[in-house]
Automatic annotation (TrEMBL):
GO terms for biological process: DNA-mediated transformation. InterPro entries: DprA (IPR003488), DrpA_SLOG (IPR057666). Residues 78-285 form the Smf/DprA SLOG domain. Belongs to the DprA/Smf family. This is DNA protecting protein DprA. Pfam families: DNA_processg_A.
Length: 286
């Protein structure tokens, strides 16, 4: 079975979980997805770990066509690294995505002055208000707001951008058509109408704790800067900020509302390590 490089790249994205250790090294070694696909199927390179070849041999090769058909019916675009619509910024993140699924305005993925806003799922009313305020203001200024579609700060960021009639992008840790968080379909539809919903995972893929950590590199990678609104020390927001720092992005932080409360400790750590304090939206330079 012969494939074009684009077909092979999409197939590889289904065989190996996004962020799979080792796959990016193989991509760099071969720089030819079709040749890599053939090598994996025929096990002609003894330096490739058996687990990689075994996964390729066991894969159901009717699945790519099934998913492409489903996406076509739903209006979900599949964007591979070989497409001109693929954002250059994501080529620079750790283990760049081989393919993205996008529902909405794919042009926003190439915006150069977007702002990522992240924070706790268990956000306080104060932090929710802050996230909405910053998102509304920066969206009115013409900046796309990026977040992860979780409850709490993420939802506030998306909502603030929509309230300002601005643009927003949701980066999911599951498939675009999977109902997660539960009963959040109305917000997802609003984001599609006012921006884009994207994922590395097939449309019906269930969420997984690991998926959320993996997608954080994209939440940081698509933006010019990251704003952390509320975060504990061991949180996804700190992970996103770490990716931003490694990518050379500015990290802004809302000063903690209470230095004695652990729910704000992550902000204290970021500020101590050099994050830029943000007291007002105009403090953030994009």
């Amino acid at each position: 079975m012969s494939m074009t490089d684009k077909q092979a790249l999409f197939t590889l994205s289904l065989i190996y979980t996004p962020g799979k250790a080792g796959i990016d090294s193989l991509m760099q070694k071969y720089n030819d997805p079709a040749k890599l696909m053939d090598t994996l199927q025929n096990q002609t390179d003894k330096d490739i770990p058996h687990s990689f070849s075994a996964a390729a041999k066991a894969f159901d090769y009717t699945l790519p066509e099934q998913i492409q058909s489903y996406c076509g019916e739903r209006g979900i675009e599949i964007i591979t690294r070989y497409d001109e619509d693929f954002p250059d910024e994501l080529l620079e993140v750790d283990c760049p995505p081989m393919a993205l699924y996008c529902l909405g305005d794919k042009k926003l993925l190439k915006e150069r002055t977007s702002l990522t806003i992240v924070g706790s799922r268990e956000a306080t009313p104060y932090s929710i208000d802050v996230a909405k305020y910053f998102a509304r203001t920066k969206a009115r200024d013409g900046h796309t707001i990026i977040s992860g579609f979780a409850r709490g700060i993420d939802t506030a960021a998306h909502t603030g951008a929509i309230e300002a009639e601005g643009k927003t992008i949701a980066v999911l840790g599951c498939g675009i058509d999977y109902d997660y968080p539960r009963y959040s379909g109305d917000l997802k539809n609003s984001i599609v109408q006012n921006g884009a919903v994207i994922s590395e995972y097939p449309p019906l893929e269930k969420p997984d704790r690991e998926y959320f950590t993996i997608r954080n590199r994209m939440i940081a990678g698509l933006s010019k800067a990251v704003l952390v609104v509320q975060a504990g020390v061991h949180s996804g927001s700190i992970n996103t900020a770490s990716h931003a720092i490694s990518q050379g992005k500015d990290v802004y932080c809302i000063p903690p509302a209470n230095i004695f409360n652990d729910i704000y400790k992550g902000q204290s750590v970021l500020l101590r390590d050099g994050a830029i304090p943000a007291f007002e939206p105009h403090d953030i330079v994009l």
